[in-house]
Write a structure and sequence with these properties.
Rossmann fold; elongated; alpha/beta; Elongation Factor Tu (Ef-tu), domain 3; 6-stranded parallel sheet; 6-stranded antiparallel β-barrel
């Protein structure tokens, strides 16, 4: 997949001699609604015998409009988004830098630069996609501004259990620790990627060594608690039990930032410095403070067996 980073007005389209069927949106999460938009663009690309493309934006618009004060946590970090789009067979990815200059473009200017200027012959977007200054551009306007140079397809609401599949809904589920339902909306387990770093090594002293996964600072995490997970590194995947939180038995919860500690089942080895991924499969329990270390050890043992049972059911 070819990747082009564009920033208005400094980007250049020199060398882009292809025509594109474009799926457009922010696509945080790449959930089933997003997938419907992208699949439709790919089908149109095949019909027109042109390349399929996705256009996304970076950083999240709310970061800009919040004056940099808004904490933006991404459901899907960029490397994971790239991996998923490649798996879907997308030919080209356009990443447009979202700044005040871009946000100030009129819908007409946006179309001239980022649609017609990129030789887009078909645009596919969700029914609620907006563009241009103050978001006044709609997919209906996208069509009216085409001047016959491109076609458009609007994808309607994609629902699950009579409710719209959306990034907002997924965020709320994760805030409540409901990783099971996110699978239904994403079409895959929610994933956190990062690097294994050095923790306090307390897990090893307790008899349950853990890998301390350090995600990017703006990564969304599920609610504090204990989860059955799958842990992938070096192309290998293991079952695991993960605690995300502040480990209140040992720390003051008001002075600690959440950590992601994975006890990898049936594995013994050095993982420090490795790139790894956690797939969140099932919630086991909330995080709580124990009266003694022995009580904590006993509970971890039970959590470990619960994780085995839950993951065995998943196959």
């Amino acid at each position: 997949m070819d990747i082009y980073r564009l920033q208005y007005p400094d980007h250049t389209t020199t060398g882009l001699n292809e025509c594109y069927s474009l799926a457009i949106g922010f696509f945080d999460g790449l959930h089933k609604g997003h997938q419907a938009v992208i699949r439709a663009a790919q089908i149109k690309a095949a019909e027109l015998a042109i390349r399929s493309a996705v256009m996304t934006f970076d950083p999240h618009p709310s970061h800009l409009f919040g004056g940099g004060k808004n904490k933006v946590s991404y459901i899907t970090q960029f490397p994971e988004k790239v991996r998923l789009l490649e798996e879907m067979g997308v030919d080209t990815l356009f990443v447009v830098h979202f700044d005040w200059e871009l946000a100030s473009l009129t819908p007409e200017q946006f179309v001239d630069v980022f649609i017609k200027g990129l030789q887009v012959k078909h645009v596919t977007g969700g029914f609620d996609f907006t563009f241009g200054s103050k978001g006044v551009g709609t997919m209906e306007m996208m069509d009216s501004l085409s001047g016959g140079e491109y076609g458009t397809t609007v994808i309607g609401k994609v629902s699950d259990r009579a409710e719209k599949v959306s990034s907002t809904r997924i965020r709320k589920l994760l805030e409540n620790g409901n990783v099971e339902e996110t699978v239904q909306l994403l079409g895959r387990p929610f994933r956190t990627i990062g690097t294994v770093g050095h923790g306090d090594k307390r897990g090893r002293l307790l008899g349950f060594p853990t890998a301390n996964l350090v995600p990017e600072p703006d990564t969304l995490l599920p609610a504090n608690g204990v989860y059955a997970v799958r842990f992938t590194f070096d192309g290998r995947t293991f079952d695991g039990v993960c605690n995300v939180g502040v480990k209140p038995t040992f720390h003051d919860p008001d002075q600690s930032r959440p950590s992601v500690e994975v006890h990898v089942l049936d594995f013994d080895g050095d993982l420090y410095g490795k790139e790894a991924a956690v797939d969140w499969i099932a919630h086991i329990r909330g995080e709580r403070k124990f009266d003694s270390v022995d009580a904590l050890i006993q509970q971890i043992g039970m959590d470990k067996e619960t994780a085995r049972e839950l993951l065995a059911k998943q196959g």
